[in-house]
TrEMBL record:
EC nos: 4.1.3.38
Lineage, opening ranks: Bacteria, Bacillati, Actinomycetota, Actinomycetes, Pseudonocardiales
Signal peptide region: none
Protein name: Aminodeoxychorismate lyase
UniProt record, GO biological process: carboxylic acid biosynthetic process
Keyword Lyase: yes
InterPro entries given in the database record: Aminotrans_IV, Aminotransferase-like, BCAT-like_C, BCAT-like_N, Class-IV_PLP-Dep_Aminotrnsfr
Family annotation (SUPFAM superfamilies): D-aminoacid aminotransferase-like PLP-dependent enzymes
Amino acid sequence: MRVLALLDGTLVDPEAPLFRADDLGVMRGDGIFETILVADRKPRELGPHLDRLERSAGLMQMRLPERAAWERVVQAVIDNWPWDTDPQMALKLVCTRGVDGGDGTPNGFAMGMQIGPDTLRKRAEGVAAVTLERGYAPDLMDRAPWLLLSAKTLSYAVNMAAMREAESRGADEVIFTATDGSVLEGPTSTVVLAQGRTLLTTPPSSGILKGTTQGALFRAAEKAGWKTEVAKFPASALFESDGVWLASSVRLVTQVHTIDGTAVKTDADLHAEINRLYESNY
Ligand SMILES: Cc1ncc(COP(=O)(O)O)c(C=O)c1O
């Protein structure tokens, strides 16, 4: 099931070709995207997702259609989704730099998709993760803006290769580490730890994406009296915490039960509390 709409709100056949072969998004992965969860017709964290899309476009120095166009296309997909049979949808916003040698007019669309069975399994059962080197230092982002660290670009081939590496090692997910051994993020997720009544995550200044799901969880946790900390931490902390989660818009807040073949602490009550906190936002 797919619902595809263009930025003027027009619906198009999701199985028909949409992009020219010389579109820079196709040829070079030169574009940006967002993936948003829509539950019962309501998009979650739409403002932060659109803020991040604008930030990514800024880092990429590419033109982006105006925010009102994105809001319109989001609504067009929501209005045409079969909510009676599918109460949740993953909504992808994609924008490329346009055609090679063109005038820089960006090309974009929004596509609603069903939540895949693999994601539902991970939400329900938790995941085994492996730590993999990402190959950059946590202070590189400001020194080397051309690397686009912290931008959500379409160039996810490395992230997907890391996921295949995890699968070849019998795991479901990856936790990337920096050259100093500190924890960065997953290929499509933010790492969150619980230490007592404190939630901890890696700072975006380490060159990672600022997670909207982690942001929503921390917002609710602070209201409920938890402490939250955004600070660099070593991979050893993964094994010494009271819980480890991978957070992202569609997977939600998924518990990690095993890292590099070693069981890490899990607590069903704590996991339920963390998920209640996250859901209390909506
Ligand atoms: C690299 C990376 N980090 C973190 C996240 C989590 O972000 P969000 O919670 O906004 O979905 C994603 C989402 O896909 C991601 O691709």
